[in-house]
Design a protein that fits this description.
Length: 175
């Protein structure tokens, strides 16, 4: 009996972490970016999509950290799941080697920022030329570059779903 009492006394003395929700105090940081921060982060993500469409490997190298971590999570029509990893060099080779225009479009992105780290979660659709290839969700981590202060992609993961499971961009197919 003494041991449980001692535990309760220690817990009361040392304190226990609070499990209460955050207060409504405006001074509490909620990781919600300002409009200008959100725009800067999303402009970096959009710059990846622009580089894909133009086949610009040099732009991808400027936007992404040299050791960027990239993972694709796919489920086949038969239900088999695969996770593949790629490097920046492999991405650049695919983009520069493509004869077709690669169009990736995000919509309804969510952005969170804490200091020099940002996170974006967004649905997307992906076209090769005029044909829908796949869709899914992108999860990106960005860090502010120490030297340039620009946002840079340090991690990019995405799901790869096949039609008819696709949630498509609300504007319809690209023009």
């Amino acid at each position: 009996m003494k041991r449980p009492v001692l535990t309760l006394v220690l817990a009361a003395t040392l304190g226990t972490p609070s499990c209460t929700p955050p207060s409504d105090d405006a001074s509490v940081v909620r990781h919600m970016p300002t409009d200008s921060e959100r725009e800067a982060v999303l402009a970096t993500v959009q710059a990846i999509f622009d580089a894909l469409a133009s086949g610009d490997g040099a732009a991808l190298r400027r936007i992404m950290h040299p050791q960027v971590v990239m993972h694709s999570v796919e489920r086949s029509a038969e239900g088999a799941r695969t996770i593949s990893t790629s490097t920046l060099d492999e991405l650049v080779a695919r983009v520069e080697g493509s004869d077709a225009i690669l169009t990736e479009r995000m919509f309804d992105p969510e952005v969170r920022i804490s200091g020099d780290l940002a996170m974006v979660w967004t649905p997307y659709d992906f076209y090769v030329g005029d044909e829908l290839s796949h869709c899914g969700a992108d999860g990106l981590l960005l860090a502010r570059n120490v030297e340039t202060e620009a946002w840079q992609i340090v991690s990019l993961s995405w799901t790869r779903l096949q039609p008819p499971e696709c949630e498509l961009h609300p504007d319809g197919p690209p023009e």
